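This follows on from our talk about sequence and fold. Please put the record directly below this note.
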Amino acid sequence: MPNDCPLPPISRSQEILDNAPYLLMLLLGAALWLGLPVQPWAWLAAVAYFAYGIAGAFWIMIFVCPYCHFHGTRLCPCGYGQLAARLQPRRDGTRFREQFRRHLPVIVPLWFLPLIPAALTLVRQFSWWTLTLAAAFVLNAFVVLPLVSRYYGCASCPQKETCPWMGGCKQL
């Protein structure tokens, strides 16, 4: 059980490091929406994208975290465990994998939606700034974020053996 786990609690600095690439992805993604030609809509799209990213984190906390064995503890690498406990009571931990797979698709569009305004902006009027911003988004979202998750956050997660994201990886 989580309370009997010999692992030390996750530090606030580790939580910040685990969440920084996700936050950076949201900021870069929102910035790409600002390249749209109609400015009031561009700002609305940027704010909506960022809000979707925050809502997505809460979606995971509400619909996935309660099934984690470490719900309500300081053993969650991303720090969602304790906040999730305030939002939902603990559920059947044997259903974690099922819940993870069911609800992860809700946030997957966050990785792809900013590519739409980036492509539209680059096709409409090429800009090195937009290309650089798009490249930074792609690098962060598809390389940095997964690497930080898998080799830093997930590597120390006590539930990695049963997590679909880690794919049953052994100790890294």
Summary: The mean pLDDT is 86. The two ends are 22 Å apart (CA to CA). The first helix runs from residue 12 to 33.
